[in-house]
Each structure stands twice: as C-alpha cells, then as structure tokens.
Amino acid sequence: MQWHNQHPAANLARTLQPLADCLHDITMNDNINGATAPLANGDGATEPQPLFQIVEALEAVHSAQSTNESRKQASIFLEQAKTSREAPYHGFTLASDRSQSPVVRHFALSLLEYAIKHNWTEYSLEQSNTLKGWVLQLAQDVNGQDPLYVRNKIAQLWVELAKRSWASEWMDMDELLVRLWAGPLVQKELVLLVLETLSEDVFNREDSAAALRGTQLNKACVDVFTPASVLAENFPARDTDVNVRFGDEGWLARFGDLLEWCLRNGVGTDEEVRSCAIKTLAALRAAMQWVMHKATAAVNCTEHICKSLAAPSVPVQMAAVETLHALYSRTYFQDDEFLALVCPMYSAESVNLLKRLYEWSVVDATSIGEEKYLLSKKFSEMISHLGNFIEQKPLLIPVGSDMPGFLNLMLNIMNHQSMTVSLPVLSTWVKLLRSDTTGQSDAFNPLVGSLLDICSRRLIKYESLPEDSDDPSLVFLLEDIDTMPERHAFVGIYRRYCVQVVETIVKRRPFDAMCHILAQTSHSLKTLYDGQPTFQAETYAKNSIPALRVDAHFTVVEAALKGYVKWVDSHGSRPQRDEIERSTTEDNLESWCEQLLGMNFQDPLIKKRVLQLAVTFSTTALDKRAGFMLKVLEHILMTRPEDNQAYPVYSDAVRDLQNDCTHELHRLAMKMPDHLLRYQVVYNQLEAKVNDIIAGGGLDDRQRLAFFMFLFIITTLSHRATSIDSQLRESRLQSFVTPIRLSWQDAELTRSISTFQGFCNLLGLGKVQEYLVSRQVHKIEEWSQYQLDAEGRAIQTELNERFQLLPLRPTKSFIGVSNDKLVKGSATYNTACALWQDVIPVILPNLLQFLSHCHAFHNPLNWTGLPEELRPIVTRVLTDRFWQAGISSGSKDDFYARVGNTRTTMEGFASSIRGTVRMVRETCYSILFCMSRLDIHFYGFVELPGPLARALFADAHALSSHQMSVLLNVARFLVDDCPVNLRAHFLPPILASLFAQVDNKVSSEWEQLMEKAQATSDNDGLTQEMKEESILRQLTYSAVLMVAGLLDPQRETKPHAAEGVAQALVGNSSPTQLPKIERRHSMRDFILSSDAILAPLLEFCTHALRLRDQRCCSVIIRVFRSIVSKFSEDRPDIREFICNEVLRASITSLHEDYFVDLQRELAQLIATIFILYSPHSNTPRQILLSLPGIEEHKLDQVAKQLLTASSGRQQRALILDLLQGLRGQSIAEQGQIARPPQNSKSAAREKRTALQHLMTGGQEANRNRAGTPDLGGLVDMFH
C-alpha cells in the first residue's frame, strides 16, 4: 500500500465504482437545486473521484430531501469506504481540507479512526509513522473555528494511537503534548481532552486496546502526571532507562496552574476561559481516580479545586464538585495523605465555603432549576464521602477543625426537601451513629432532636400520597424518578436509613431519645385531624393523611423500641444505675401504651396500627410485664369493629382489622411469658374467653380457626413451663391434631380425589365447564360487563363453601404454627416432630393428589368435553389478575376497587374459579414446605421423590409464568432443606424434572414474547405485553438465581441435628430401608457429579445465555465461569458440550447489540473456555476459525497471548479484539454524530441515573422492542 503516491484513490474507485455511480445518480436527482457541481480542491482542479463520492454520499445521508433508498445506498457506500486500503489517506485529505463541511471532516476522521482501531497491527513501521504524522498534523492545526465535535474526534485519534504505540515505539508523545500546551487555549483544551480520555481508557474503562498494554500504559501515565520530585522520593529505585516524560513538573502541576489562571481571568464572564476551566477540572477528575495521593498533595490540587467552588459559574462549580467527589470516593488514604488532603476540608474556612455553596444551590420545589439542583445532588454525594472519613480516621482530625460546623452542614443537607439530595448524607449519618468511636461523641448531642424530627417526617409513605399533592418532598421525588417501581425502591431505602438512625440514637441515648419520641408522637395523635376533615365512613379512604401520619410516627416508635431492646441486651457499662433507669423508662412506656389503648380512633387502619404497636411493646420492651400483656390481650379480644357494608372501602378496612386482630393474637401467644404458662387457670380462662367469642357468632371459618390456633400456640409453648404435666400438654395438642388426621383419612375424600373428574366435583368445579359452555363465554368480549345470573352466583358461592370443607386450610394453619421459627434440636422442634410424625404419612398421598390435579386443571387437554372453540378460554379463565407498579394503569387501590366491582360479572366468575384452584394449590405448597422442615419425618420416605416430582412438575408447563415462579420458590425450599445424607435419593428426580420444565417454560415463553413484540401495535396490547414480559423476567431471574445458589462455591452445607439418629427414625417413618448415608459434601459437588441433574441444568443455562435479559444472562455467565474448570481434566462429554453449545451461545450473544453491556463478561467466559479446554480439545479453535474474518495466524497469535496473559482484563481484551468485527454495537457507537435530545426530559433522565447505585433491581433501559437487526449474517456465522 502506497499512501503517498500521486493517485491514491484508484483502488477504491475501481472497487466501489458501480455503487458510486448509482449513488451519484440518486444524489443528482435529490439535490435541492436540481444539479450538483463537482467539488474543487484548493488549486481549482477537479477533486479525485472517491473523495467526491464520499462527499456526495454524506450529503445523501444527511439531506432531508434524500429518499430512504438513496440514504441506505449511501450508508452502505460509506461503511465500505472505511475498509478501503486508501481510506486513511482519504481521511487525512478531507479532514485537513477546511473548505469541507464539518460533517465531511468528522467522517474523514472516522476513516482514520477505523484504520487505527482495525488495521494497526497490519501496518509496517513506515505506514504507522505516516498515519501517526497525519494525526499529529491535524492536532497541530486545530483552531477555535473547528467545531467541538471535530476537535474531540482529533483528540480521540491521538488517544487511539497512544494506546497502541506510546511508551514502546512512540517515546516523545509527552514532549509533543507539552509543545501543544504552549499554544493558544484551544490547543490546551485539545491536550486536556487527550489526557482525560487516556486516563479514563487506561484506568477507569474496560478498553480492550488499553488493556492489552496495561502495564506499559499504567507506568507511562504515572510518569507523566506525577511531579519528578514525588517519583524520586517515593520510588528511588525505579527504572529510568525508558523515559517517556518531558519536564519535571508533570501534568498535575500544569493542570493546577492553568486552572488558577482561568480563575483569575474572567471565568465567570469569558466563555472561552470558562470552557477551559471546565475541561481542566474534567481532566483532573479523571486523574483523581487513580493518581498518587502524594502527587495530588504535592501540587496543591485540592486548593485549586476548592477555589473553583467559589467561581461565579454553575458549570465550573459542578465540575469542581465532581472532581472532589472523584478524589474523596477513593477508599484508602494513608495517614499523611489523610492529613494533607482530607483534613483541610474540615477547617473553618473550608466548611464556611461549603456551607455557602450548598445554601446557594438549594432550589424550591415550586421552581426547580436544573443546573443548581444537579449541583446539590452531586454536592451531597461529595459531602457524604467526606463525612465517611470522620468515622474511618476520627483521631487524626486536627483539634482546630470546625467539626460542629461540618456536622451542621450535613444535618442541613439531610433536611433538604429532596430525598435524592438528602439520601447520601443520611447514609453517612447511619455510619457515624453506629460507629463505636464516633457514635458516643458529645458533638452529636445538640443534633439528636433534629435528626429524630427529620426522620419522623420522612417516614411517611410518600408513594401512597396522591401525585397532585403539594408536598415538596413528593414533588422532588416525582421530578427525579419517573417510574413507580423505582420510586417504591427508593423511598424504601430511604425509610430503612431513617429507621436505622432512630434505632441507633435510642441505643446510644435510650432515655432522652425515648422521651423525645413519645412526646412527639403524643402531640401528633392529639392534633391528628387538625386541618383535615373529620372522619366519615361514607368518605373513607385508606391512605388518608391522618392514617399516614400515624403510620410514620408509629414506625419511629417501633424503631426506637428496637434500639431500646439492643441497649437492654448490652445493659450498659453501669449495671446498677442502668437498671434503675431501665425500670423507670419501662414504667413510662407502659403508662404511655395504656394511654394509647384508651384513645378512641374511628379509622380501622389506625386501630390496626395501635394494636400492632401495643403488641410490639408487649413482646419487646415490656415482655417481662405480664399484667400489661394481659391488658393488650383483652384489648384485642374486645376489639369488635362494627362493619358497614354500605360503604365498601370502609367495610374492607374493617375486615382487614379483624384479620389483623387474629394475627396479633398469634404474635402475643408466641411471646407469652413463661410464668403465665405455668398456671393452668390462665389457660382455662383464655380458653373460656375464646369459646365465648366463638359461641357469640359473627365469625367466619377463618376467624374461628385463628382463635383455635391461638390456644394451640400457647399449648405448644407450654413446654417451657415445667410445672405443667407433659401428658396433659400432649393430650391438648393431640386434641387439635386428631380431627385433622381423621379428615385426611376420610374414605370419601380419598375416593373423590383419586381421579381428575372426582377432584373437580369435590371442589364444585364440575359445574363450571357446563356453565361456560351454556353461556357461550367465548363470544363475550368484555367479561367485566357481563352480569352473572342466579346460577352463576350460586356456583360462586358453592366454590367457596366446598373449599372451606376441605382439610387443607386447618392443616396448613396448625402445621405452620408448629414450624414457626423452628430450631432443630430444640424442645419446640422435638414437640413438632412427635406431634406430626404419624400424621404426615396419612396426609401425603392425598396431598399429592390434590396438587397433581390442581396443576392438571391448568392444562386445556384435561378439560374433556369442552368444544374446540372454547379451549382458548381456559388460559384466560386461569390467568391471574394482578397490579404491577409502573405498568398497570391506576393505583393499587384503584385496581382492587375494579376487582371488587366485577365480583358479580363473568370476570368475577373466572376469578372465583382460578381463586379456588389457586388456594388449593398454594395451600398444598405451604403444607409441603412445613413438612420439609421436619427433616427425616418427611424426606425419609423412600417412595416419595418420584410421586412428588410428578405431582409438582408433570403439568407444570401449563402454569402461567407467575404461577411457575411460585412453584420454583417452593421447590427451592424443598431442595435446601433436604438432609445431606438423603440428597442422592431425594433430589435427582426433583431437580431433573424442575430444570427440564423450567427450561421448556422459559424458552417457549421468551420465544412467544419476541414474536408478540414484532406484532403488537395497540396500546392495550402493549400494556399486556409489558406485564407478561415483567413476569417472565421475574421467573427467569428466580430460575437463574436458584442455579447460582445451588452451584455457589461458598455455599455451606446446613447442619442437620437429626442426622445422627436418622436410621433409628426410618423405622417409624417408612417400612422401606433408606439408602446408606453418604459422605457429607457440598451441594455444588453433588450436582456436578449427578448426570441426571446436570444434563437439564446445563441445557437451561445454555439457553439462558441467549435470553433477552441482561441481568439473568450476567448471572449465568458467572455460573459457567465457576464450573468450567471442573471439567478441564475429565468428563470429555461435558467438556465438548461446553465447547460446542456454550461457546457458540456466548459468541452469538456477543454479536448482538442487545448484549453490548455484557460484552466484557461474555468475552471473559469465551477466554476461560478457550484457555482451559484448548489443551484437551480442538473444538474451541475450530469454532472460532469457522467465524467470518477470523484468520488462522491471528487466532494462533491470540492463543499464545491468552496463555501468558497476566490478568482477566488482558484476556477479555484479547478476545474482544479478535472478535472485533463480530461484536454488537451500542446505539451510541452506531451513530456518526450525536443528535441533540428530542425533549428536555432526556438530559434530566441521564443525570438521574446516579440514583441507580442506591437502588436494587433496576429496570433495563432502551430495550429495542423490535429485536436486534442482522448486522453480519449471524445465521451463517457457524459452518
């Protein structure tokens, strides 16, 4: 290739002439003026044909008059032009020609960029020097007339050259930069951008080119940025044979000098100076993330940056704050570095500057200025880091520091109306208060009241406020976070921090803090309805302001109780004095609670919170006060709210209160004091009271059952009272369990559920099919508008009544109570085992029949006799309705209101059907889980695994994605609780069936979802598709997390207390002898050694690599990386599967644009497979050679480098470089010049992504709903 010959365009012209001719004709026709004159060069001669074609093609691409076909042809031509051998010369020629438009010059620079990125290794030394010379010439010629994006592109070219040749064959780069630095400001800005980008690529980004030369580039950057004196002092023995620096001062010092000059020369008024200051700070910010702290201190960087905080320019202030944030977000500072860089920020002068900047940046919720508000957010994050240092090295902070002023600044930021601004500092307060060193400091005493007040105000449930509320914090929340799920996650995190602040303060200062909190709450309760309408049942709303206020204050009290209990457990350092104060405090607490119970609230939800709080007091701080517990118990038993069904919302709240009363009874029973349990008379009185309440009527079956469970719990716990006769206790317990056992032994029940039809008749479902057919439900479009007749309503009633007659709910309730918080080997555990060991074998056969038929009911094939045209309605009938935050229209309360309003419609009829089946199914799940907690008494049945696997998974494919997620969760518990010695017998049929069904379900659902994405156009269809996609992602994530949990190398085997007596217990559980107890080992090793489980598991994991869910794909990549090494020496069958299927799936995903954010992880997996398996198999090599563009000599070179690579980063870089032509591209990479945002919200949303590091489970953004275009013949990649 001769770039310097007289006619360098000849090859490109011959190669692309046919396409160019077509393009020329199109462009001529599309020209606005109807004609296109040939472009001329500087001396008037006609421009070479290829350059003319490039210019015309760019005009066709960017002209609004171009047709789609001409734009497409032009784009193809331009992409092909990049691959031409003469492209670098064309690029330099056009880029250096200032008569060309900026668009042309920018594309010309991309020709040079393509040559550097893709062809650099193929160039000779002469060619690479020529290319470098062109780039240096372009940099030298930069001036202020060049558009910013052209200058940025030139800087990027410089960086691409540096990453490939600096500190090896290119040794004078630093000198060239220094000489440019001596030029005008525009050249200084170019140098700043070069060094900023180089810093980012070498140290902060996953750049493949930089990673390949990581050691050289790291050392070179340190050399040129750090002052020579600092290097000589800290590395006196460093190698100086290879010298890449020019001058002794280093770039940090030069940056500081330039920033100082900008601040003195009109940074607030001169746009050019302001731009230079911002770029200088940006370069400093990039360097602060890696440069030596001693170098930063030596050149007084923090002093220069802090001066920028006072600059009369918000962008400059923002850049300064970001730079300080980058510095102080680094976690490790040596003591001398801490004194030099961190402690000055605590001085009175610095604190005053920070305080003034913050106060100036505060914006009002009624007028949110975007620039100042963003500054407040970043400023808060920076102050948070500074605050964290107080906890890390408190003893090093100088005595003269203004710590009270800094703490007050943190308090003011925490009090900001925006929770987004407040949250970073709030998290720092938690750390400071929790620290044993700083938490006891007297400096916090003046701030405690304010901290408690802020937390009390912020614990209100903002997500329950109406969106049109004028509450400032809600206004900011809506401004910051667009979607409901993210808001819920954010306020949940914020509330947890507030609770931790309250809890920690009370633990440190229990008496004063408790008094403050209770006084604050009492005042709020007395003024609850001030400014609010009085309570009216007819206008009742669940989320009224008074109810939300009560909930917030009671949450503060509950947090305070947790802190108080922790203080009591530690009991202070002064036992006698603490005991006196504790007794006094508890007297006050009891008195306060009695006053609370004496208050008369009409709102059922407020009554509910009062009951909950009273029980919390009784079971925590006042758990030794039996008299108070009896008062609370009496209050619960006497709470009989009057229902008024004329007002549905109020009536629902009353029922909610009634249900909560029974729940609070159970909580109270679980904490019944031992000395109360000793007295038979106490139990007799409670039993008599319960019997009176039940005899009084007005209770449904669920409530009656709850009262019996209350007595059952007390009886179960009575083992703690040794004075009670054990035979009496066992007799009482058996009196509860015997009716359950007899109901399961009923011959009629066994006969009924022996067949699917009998199961349907038992539940009343047999009439459902006939009713749906007779009403021709498939012809009804709006089920919610079709009112049921008398027969339909009668079937609804019968469904509910028949379920109540089944033994499922009582069994679930009593065995659930027996298993609550069981600790194996404890007295409670032994009692539960003795109580249920003879009942479990009676329950299991019929229980599995119930479960099997429930799953079969979802399969339309089992609806025999149903006309073919009605079969699609089976899925519709059995698909659950639910509300999804951020997707469903309206609020959750609106959804429940709509559901309630359709109870007597065909939609309500379908809800009754699926509700009955769901209750049976999920009750069976609960019973199985409770049984699994009893160890050998469940897992010890030799005949169980096969029938259990069939009952769980035979018809699981017919379940919806949501229902499958529930089943998966149940299966996970069954697997986790399996004793180690029984794994080989119990788990293979369970896990093999599970992964086979999950793979089938997940893969088919994703395939259907992708097909729907192509076809859906209407809004209703799109909303439904979004719901389905959200649920499917949840199912997929649950499945991959289960895989990751099972194969986690750090997973520890759970101890099983009953394991030592397993064989003795077998005789009581099953007549069949169990397999011999095997050696204890990890679940991971067990699964990897079990072919029956491993085969479907690997199939699922391989398919998961191709699913359109980046979160799930990332988990599976980590799973594969953790297990690949297990098969490097043996198991050639598994090794070949991974070499073929897993490697192909990884490469295919690497190719697609959707997975662009996972390219680093995919590349690491590919590298791992190649490195570990290539010595034993030729398959990885053959797979890679089959890819288009992969040449054998290049692969051999990469293979050698992979084996000697010193880090994972280098391995990834080698793979990414090898597959450069096949990698997918992000949206940003696909464009040539970034277009301005379409609306003002776009920029704000980009800035809001800073919240994501505080939130869990974020949503994937910018998903291409239409799928990924074919960018390289993926179908034909493997051959």
Automatic annotation (TrEMBL):
Gene3D superfamilies in UniProt: Leucine-rich Repeat Variant (1.25.10.10)
Pfam families: Exportin-5, IBN_N, Xpo1
Residues in coiled coil: none
Keywords: tRNA processing
Region (Disordered): 1255-1279
Matches recorded under InterPro entries: ARM-like, ARM-type_fold, Exportin-1/Importin-b-like, Exportin-5_C, Importin-beta_N, XPO1/5
GO cellular component: cytoplasm; nucleus; RNA nuclear export complex
DNA-binding among keywords: no
Family to which the UniProt record says this protein belongs: Belongs to the exportin family.
Record's protein name: Importin N-terminal domain-containing protein
Species for this entry: Glutinoglossum americanum
